[in-house]
Amino acid sequence: MKIRPGVAQAITAHARREHPRECCGMVLGVGDELVEAVAAENVAADPARRYEVSPADHIAQIRRCREAAKAGGASLAILGVYHSHPHSAPVPSPTDLDHAWEEYVYLIAGPANGSAPLEIRAYRLNGGRLIDVRLTPTPAGDAE
Asked: pTM for the full model?
């Protein structure tokens, strides 16, 4: 899966702003390319330990993508979800697995508790397991 530089930068900035809470949001794209990260409100009961994307934010992005397509604009779609692990590596937890959907890619950024670069890894649900998805950065010149 391809990822534009701005996507990783937006996720990293969001994770750092929300630390020590988990941040979350959606990744939009076209085909197999992630082109935008959209921050969402984390509405989990315990946002320091888990995430839940605001349903209102999710619906707003679905509508945004549909309206853009109707207007002849970009044919973006929600391709997945991202969240941060404030104090641990970007490896799926049992809770992450329990809440995964097969049609989405899941990006995890972590650890977000310092100034060192965050690692962002991607996963997809397959056969009841979250398997690694290779993220290939697109050159900056390929961005819109």
From this structure: 0.92
pLDDT in tens, the chain (144 residues): 999 999 999 999 999 999 999 999 999 999 999 999 999 999 999 999 999 999 999 999 999 999 988 888 778 999 999 999 999 999 999 999 999 999 999 999 999 887 777 899 999 999 999 999 999 999 865 544
List, in sequence order, every residue forming a beta bridge with 25; answer none if it has no partner: 39, 82
Task: Tell me which residue range forms the domain holding 90.
Answer: 2-142
What order of strands is seen across the sheet that includes strand 77-84? Answer: 129-133, 119-126, 105-110, 77-84, 24-30, 33-40, 2-3, 136-137
Q: What CATH number is given to the structural domain containing 103?
A: 3.40.140.10
**Total domains present in the chain:** 1
Place of tokens 């992630």: 34
